Amino acid sequence: MKFLFVLSALASLAAAQSVVIQAPAPGTTFAPGQQFVVDVDRPDTITGSQDVSVAIGLLSCVGQAPPGTCDGVNTTEEIGTVLFAGPYTPQLRPGGADLFQNFTVSVPDGFQAGAAALSVAHFTLVGELAMPVLEVITETVFVS
Ligand SMILES: *[C@@H]1O[C@H](CO)[C@@H](O)[C@H](O)[C@H]1NC(C)=O
Ligand SMILES: *[C@@H]1O[C@H](CO)[C@@H](O)[C@H](O)[C@H]1NC(C)=O
């Protein structure tokens, strides 16, 4: 019983550490070679958690999903071309209540035109027990 409680408490704790892609907006169109900022946000929670790293990937959905969509593409299995992989050390947003970090990345030259899944894989250690949590969040963007 107690164990179950601890597990569910950890699960909600883990959910509270979840990141969001603040920018770019879903549906944004980029040209191959174009630079853009991926703004990775998380709430400034009082519960202890230690962010470790993120990986940002871009996966073409062309031929894997109905045209113009990424429906059914599972980015927990692959994030595609890795645009960034390294430490995640978010800072308090000026004038805001959340933590953020901007990553400047570029669409690879010659990237397949069409819908693409932009993913952020986020690795964090949650709570006093340092429970390792890996989450992958994704949005659909377009490459022209
Ligand atoms: C995505 O893939 C993972 C790992 O294979 C699997 O656990 C999960 O159920 C899949 N999700 C969907 C929506 O298919
Ligand atoms: C981070 O990126 C967002 C979205 O592009 C932008 O509004 C903000 O000014 C950037 N912040 C910094 C400090 O570069």
UniProtKB/TrEMBL annotation:
InterPro entries: Nis1
Organismal lineage: Eukaryota, Fungi, Dikarya, Basidiomycota, Agaricomycotina
Signal sequence bounds: 1-16
Protein name: Phosphatidylglycerol/phosphatidylinositol transfer protein
Keywords from the UniProt entry: Signal
Source organism of this protein record: Trametes coccinea (strain BRFM310)
